[in-house]
Amino acid sequence: MATINGEIKSKSRAGTGIKVGETWYNGTRSQLESLNRGDNVELSHDNRTIEWVKASGGGSQKPAAKPAGGGGGRWDPEADRKRQGVIVYQAARNAAIQFTAEGIKAGAIAMPTKAADKFDVYASVIDEYTERYYNDAMSVYETGGLPDDAPSGSNKEAEYAD
Q1: Gap between the terminal Cα atoms of the chain
Q2: What is the CATH number of domain 2-57?
Q3: Sign of torsion, CA 131 137 142 146?
Q4: Residues ≥6 apart with Cβ < 8 Å to 1
Q5: Is residue 67 pLDDT above 80, yes or no?
Q6: How confident is the model at residue 159 (pLDDT cuts 50, 70, 90)?
Q7: Rounded to 5 degrees, what are φ and ψ at 18?
Q8: What is the distance between the alpha carbons of residues 125 and 135, in angstroms, rounded to a whole number?
Q9: Residue 134: half-sphere exposure toward Cβ, Cα within 13 Å
Q10: pLDDT attached to residue 73
Q11: pLDDT number for residue 85
Q12: By C-alpha distance, which of 39, 36, 18 is closest to 27?
């Protein structure tokens, strides 16, 4: 961990980074919300990640926020499951979009000639594969194992069994 002093030359639009001298340092909004361009600061950082920061001349220290699940608060398994479900859905949707685009490009997915019909086919294939990928991934998340209908040869559990 290193400590530096200097003037804030710039602050990121998101409010999560400040430039002191010629170097950018990343923190949290709550750490940096009261700081502005031109302020003199003292900060402690680990590989440019701010541990604490204070305005020089008596500002109060703002410790880094605890990472999610990092203790201090009560863990809410239902909120965690919902958050994980959203992340899994986004990943499944992105994979389905990529899969569908590659399938169309390779000619593996037949497309109609009318533009409106093309969109309907494209959207329905994405929806179908999003649901499949999501259900498979959530099954792994909830059970800790691969889905029962996983293709043979993809079951790596036996290789890593104790």
Answers
A1: 39
A2: 2.40.50.320
A3: positive
A4: 44, 45, 46, 51
A5: no
A6: very low
A7: -135, 150
A8: 15
A9: 17
A10: 60
A11: 86
A12: 18
Of residues 14 and 66, more confidence is placed in 14
154, 146 contact by CB (below 8 A): yes
Q: What sign does the dihedral 105-107-108-113 (CA atoms) show?
A: positive
Q: Where in the chain is the domain with CATH 2.40.50.320?
A: 2-57
Distance CA 17, CA 24 (A): 7
Residue 55, strand partner residues: 41
Q: What number of other Cβ atoms are within 10 A of residue 9's Cβ?
A: 14
Chain-wide mean pLDDT for the chain? Answer: 80
CA dist., res. 67 & res. 53, Å (int): 17
**Measured distance CA(120)–CA(126) in Å, rounded:** 10
Do residues 14 and 30 touch, judged by C-beta distance below 8 A? no
Can you tell me the distance from the alpha carbon of 131 to that of 135, in angstroms, rounded to the nearest whole number?
Answer: 6
> In this structure, which amino acid lies at residue 56?
S
Whole-number Å distance between alpha carbons of 149 and 131: 15
The whole-model pTM stands at 0.45
